[in-house]
Amino acid sequence: MAGAEFGFELRVCAWAERHWEPADPDSRVLVARQLGTRRRRWDTVIVEADPAGLSARAAFGADELDADLLDVVRHAPADWTYYRDALPDPGYPWRYVREAIHRASARGVLDERKRANRIEIRRVAPYPDWVRRVVAVENKPDLDASAARALAAQLERDVALGLADEVWVATRADATRALVTEMPNAAGVLTVGAGDDAADDATDEGRDPEAGERDALAVDVAWHPRTLDPDATGVRVTDRGDPTAFEYVDPAEKRETRARLAERAYGRGWRAYADTMRPDCRAFDLRAAEEGDVPYCHAKGREQTAAECSGSCPDFSPEPPGWRQRGWPIEGGPGKTVKRLLDRRRRRRRPGLDERDGDA
User: Fold this and answer.
1) What are phi and psi of 293, to 5 degrees?
2) Predicted TM-score (pTM) of this structure
3) Neighbours of 166 (CB within 10 A)
4) DSSP 127
5) Kind plus residue range of the DSSP H or E element containing 33
6) Residues of the domain holding 133
7) Based on the domain organization, do 33 and 157 belong to the same domain?
8) What per-residue confidence (pLDDT) applies to 194?
9) pLDDT, tens digit, for every residue of 232-281?
10) Cis (ω within 30 of 0) for the bond into 88?
11) I want to staple 178 with a disulfide (CB 3.0 to 4.6 A). Which of 104, 148, 161, 324 is the partner?
12) For bias kind Basic residues, which ranges apply (predicted)?
């Protein structure tokens, strides 16, 4: 397995998407990466979703609903109503609410009209309660005892806050001893062993690289976590000095944060790395690894990180115009194909989207 934490993270996300066992056996599993709040960001977020609710969520499209849109959509009435009568007082100027209404209407997730110089709104569908559980995973492939102690302090904060239902650490099997001895006992530990590191043939345009066989990632539970209570008041540590400073977090605030996290997970998934990397580079490729596909750079001869793969990379070489003009009317070259492929695989985990917009 590649040494970079980025590649390790993608492998854990791919494994979780295929093999995570939710608390309710009928739950659907959505996986996203690099999500969190202003104070905390998790490497991997697993959302266990109600199947019917997840299908109903598709009525609002494939893109995430940000906090402002979510507030409008959830409170939109079934019949035409003056927006100030329909929506709760936001606690800030109503002009910002009007802007959110206009954006929601433009996206087709809310109906809007003007009657007697008043803005009226109507929902396109009830917004479902589709989230059952949220699981947070910190990916640390290489840990010694010192690094484990530093990570343990952060996990203690996660446990005290109780925003997620479970908190885990994923690491290589040879780092397990340091983790188990240093981690808070409420956090779980996953040990990840490498499968076959040999890269398969490069992805050809139009071929689904996950269609073929690949070795499974060896993941075991070294320590089971304690189930946390997101509906209880949480404790947010603001300063670990002497004495420790903290504040209480109301369950309602935690529910709002979880809903926003779930929306971002729905919209982004874990394959969105192609949006910030440069798949339009000649050297960019996807290669089959354990459970999923990872970016590979032919110029470097190895898996690159998301930070390395940019227009400022000295090895960056854009696709020639002839590649980009393939297809009709102009579908683009291999870079566009990579993005379409990753988007298609993301959409497979979100039932109902194809029925809504006809996109394959």
Assistant:
1) -120, 145
2) 0.87
3) 22
4) P
5) strand 28-36
6) 5-53+129-268
7) yes
8) 58
9) 999 988 777 667 788 999 999 999 999 999 999 999 999 999 888 999 99
10) no
11) 148
12) 337-350
